[in-house]
Amino acid sequence: MKSQNQAILSIGSNQGDRLENVQACIQLIQLEIGTVFSVSKLYETPSWGFESDSFYNCTIAIHTPKSAQKLLSSCLKIEKKLGRIRSLKEGYQSRIIDIDIISFENEIIQSANLVVPHPLMQERLFVLLPMKDLQLEFVHPIMNKSTQDLIDSCNDKSSCKVVANLELPLGKFNLQHYNYIVIEGNIGAGKTTLAEKIAQDFNAKTVFERFADNPFLPKFYKDQNRFAFPLEMSFLADRYQQLSDDLAQFDLFKDFIVADYHIFKSLIFAKVTLQDDEFRLYKTLFDIIYKEMPKPDLYVYLYQNTDRLLQNIKRRGRSYEQEIPADYLDKINKGYIDYIHTQTNLNVLIIDVSDRDFVKNQSDYMFILDEIRKKMKK
Fold first, then answer.
1. Which residue among 53, 260, 276, 357 is the active-site one?
2. 157 pLDDT band (50/70/90 cuts)?
3. Active site residue 260
């Protein structure tokens, strides 16, 4: 699964406190544009194409939900926020900060205001050497050359001296402190999307629930009483089989694993949907299965209020979900909260994201990561 685009940005500064300018730029990109998952060393290089003070340069790799054009717009806003004033004069000028889009996915873009890959990247050591630090499997989509190939054929002989190691903003979160994280939530809460983002940004192994082809689900939403028990038994069997198979591939003591569900969600939904006698039978089987399942190091429950859940469900457009009543979502949420509070051996973090959009707003995503970080400190 992939919900974000990967881009490489080049950052430079030759005015004021160059180190502070570059560090501030990286932090703003992390907060406002996308997750900075790799940072090069910082290089001091002579000005390129004009006479001026030397530059500090680096490259960063980011994950962002933005399109290339929106990424460009956001980069220009950050330059302006950091004090850059663009001159109408032709040619190169000194600048407090400069952000160039070097690559965007594997795309070739040629528009009036954006050309990707950057048309001069292969001529600039101050771009290529930092790119090598990122240790990405980059291949120029037009020239069909790797970063090392581009360095080897580059005619630029400028001095590029390493002057500092830059801090990776993600380093402070250290989510790998946990080996196994589960992201859970009600229908439409965004658990899969968040799990995808964290997995991409922290290079985690993933376990995603597969349920879209469950033949009982559309029938259940039309006639809950009739199809509740076969639906819940089907989900329980599928989840048990999938979790057993998927987790068996990983080392729960070494790998970093992110999942978008845990087996006990089966009990939550069954408690809401089944009649009392059906639930008693169901719980007997569930308890046997539950004892065998690995428990997560951290269980994150994304809470969203019912109105927001209904909006999300409508927006994602699954036909069989469109008739889900609000009171059903209320019962599911209450079931989660009640059950979570009984789990004394489960490390739980409840995050209210009712007023947050961690897909479109990078700052909301950073808020969630920070909540997880604070939980680790306790």
1. 260
2. confident
3. yes
